[in-house]
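Sorry to interrupt, but I need a hand with the structure work. Leave the record below and I will have a look:
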Amino acid sequence: MTEHLGFLRSSDEYKIMAMASYGRPRFLPEPRDAVHAAEAAVRRVADRAGGLDAVVAAAGTDRCGRLVDIPGPEWDRVVLVNLLGTAAVVRAALPYLLRSHGKVVTVGSTLGVRALSDAIAYCASKFGIVGFTGR
């Protein structure tokens, strides 16, 4: 069975979701610290599956606007989902991937190498992913 992890926007809150390949979503408990929840979700999936052969981190959310126009909590949410969520998933998967000689795929954006003033939070988070990935 293939498991997918991601952030799902619901009522302006992000929840960690695990969805089995048969398409029935199951919501995991929503602790206040979404990064720790992502790490725990990866470990649960890997332990249940007997390891991991690969991880794809494809987080993405945005709050369009210039830096002066984006409230702090909205900026934080973009960085939390896009950059810190990606890092948390990869970090939690690494022990399993090292054992299996598995692969990591991170999904960035062209806006991670070219800034756009009206998408500054998104650009900053995706620049972080480019730096985190090393390409």
